[in-house]
Amino acid sequence: MNERGMKAYFIRVQTQKPWVDIAKELDYASHNGCRHAAKDYSEKNNLPWPITYMTKGAAIYKANRIGVSWMRISKIYRQPMRTVKQIAYKYASRHNKIWPPNKEKTHG
Asked: Where are the domains of the chain?
């Protein structure tokens, strides 16, 4: 898994920070490399591109649904695992989503 691409993607989804700021935060040499890594991550994981804004709850829920562990998500958001699970749970409850999110399967 492209760890930095994943982080870049979800930072952009959640915060809408400029690519140049995300690139600095994740130690990319350029903002173009950062954007390219995020785009590759989105394509490999069937996520929307160009990126559309999601709430934090939606972003966390979707990340876990596609297989990102709670531990990784908690590191990305720099919050305890319990907190990110709680945020995702509230999102799922409010939007009638399956809980836990990694049980939801896409049929195609």
From this structure: 1-53, 55-108
